[in-house]
Amino acid sequence: MAFTSLKVDEEAHDLVIKCCQEYPKGIKEAYKMRMTVAYGLERFWGEQFRLKGDKAKYWQETWTKLVEIMSYAGIEIPNDDVSSGETAAIRDMAERLWAFPQEQRKVALAILIQLCDSLVWWTQRYKNLIPEDQNDDDN
After folding, report:
1. Domain ranges across the chain
2. Where are the alpha helices (DSSP H) in 23-100?
3. pLDDT in tens, 32-68
4. Considering only CA atoms, which of 21, 5, 77, 17 is closest in space to residue 44?
5. Which phi and psi (to 5°) does residue 133 adopt?
6. For FRET with 42, which of 28, 32, 78, 112 sits at 20 to 30 Å CA-CA?
7. Which residues neighbour 21 within 8 Å (Cβ) at sequence distance 6 or greater?
């Protein structure tokens, strides 16, 4: 088996920079993301529906990045388009995640932990790039 770098740290760096530029009010979510990993893929994925605005966008971007990283590793995480907000589509996606093979789930969670750890690290470095009035907790 050959080693393949998934560039998790680089991907996290780019996500934090994007968040600073495009949705700065979501920057503090990295810490919450790291805590949520312990509850599993389904709950991590579902957080985007609880939040609004910048915060929801950051969670969505992070989930999409995880799916992309895992595809490089040959693991296809379910990622249905649920932007319609239809409860049936959301329920189907959650069920697909609950049925996700256990061995692949373990690998995906390990990578998600690394991704979130890196997000936190880069957030600590770059949070001062955001104007103070944009770095508040409004939703």
Report:
1. 8-128
2. 29-36, 41-50, 53-72, 87-98
3. 999 999 999 999 999 999 999 999 999 999 999 999 9
4. 77
5. -70, -15
6. 28
7. none
